[in-house]
Automatic annotation (TrEMBL):
GO terms for cellular component: mitochondrion. This is Pentatricopeptide repeat domain 2. It comes from the Eukaryota. InterPro entries: PTCD2. One of its GO terms (biological process) is mitochondrion organization. It comes from Colobus angolensis palliatus. GO terms for molecular function: RNA binding. Transmembrane segments: none annotated.
Length: 216
């Protein structure tokens, strides 16, 4: 099943790259789709493509959406490019979404900034608990990674377990994985898949991508 999906993602990415090579202007949603595909492929090659597309967009003065940047951050983390992930994350305006919250935790984990990580979780659990203030939501999967990281440091483990309990009591833990959070699309938005399928049908006669970003 995964090999079939990988082929589908690869084909979709080739279509997007050919659009780029033919100077078809990317919209904000197109960048989201491109970065999401790169994230799903999760390879050094797809990371390079994502990085190139992002840098080209920034040079042109285009504004990338928070969602597109989240996919770029997640891909960088999956490729152990922590410094790149930190750089991209630092440029996200209003990083207050559930995806940003959990990506920030993963950044702390992979950067080994454990005390800052515990402080971040503490502030989320013990901060303003007014029902009128939007609370940070954490993925159970991500919190499990935190526990695994601090399990050999008794003081941090004890503090984490205390915070973990508070987060559960205040309803700030979701069973959705980070991948599910990243890929969630509100129902009222148009299907990117439908748009992509239309592009693929109309461009079946494309020449080989020998001058595409894949060759860089």
């Amino acid at each position: 099943t995964w090999s079939w999906l990988k082929m589908s993602f690869t084909g979709a990415l080739e279509v997007l790259i050919e659009m780029k090579n033919q100077n078809v202007k990317f919209t904000k949603d197109t960048y989201v789709l491109a970065f999401a595909i790169c994230y799903k492929l999760n390879s050094p090659e797809s990371f390079k493509i994502c990085t190139t597309l992002r840098e080209e967009a920034l040079l042109k003065g285009e504004i990338l959406s928070r969602r597109a940047c989240c996919f770029a951050v997640a891909l960088a983390l999956n490729q152990n490019e922590v410094a790149k992930a930190v750089s991209i994350f630092s440029q996200i305006m209003n990083p207050e979404s559930i995806a940003c919250t959990n990506l920030n935790v993963i950044i702390h984990i992979q950067s080994n900034t454990l005390e800052n990580l515990i402080e971040t979780l503490t502030n989320a659990a013990e901060g303003n608990l007014s029902k009128f203030v939007k609370r940070c939501m954490f993925s159970e999967e991500v919190l499990a990674k935190v526990r695994e990281k601090v399990k050999d440091v008794p003081a941090l483990l004890a503090k984490f377990d205390e915070i973990y309990g508070k987060l559960h009591v205040s309803g700030q833990v979701t069973n959705y994985s980070l991948d599910a959070v990243l890929c969630y699309t509100p129902r009222d938005r148009k299907s990117h898949t439908l748009l992509l399928n239309k592009r693929m049908v109309s461009r079946r006669t494309f020449r080989p991508l020998n001058q595409s970003l894949l060759a860089e």
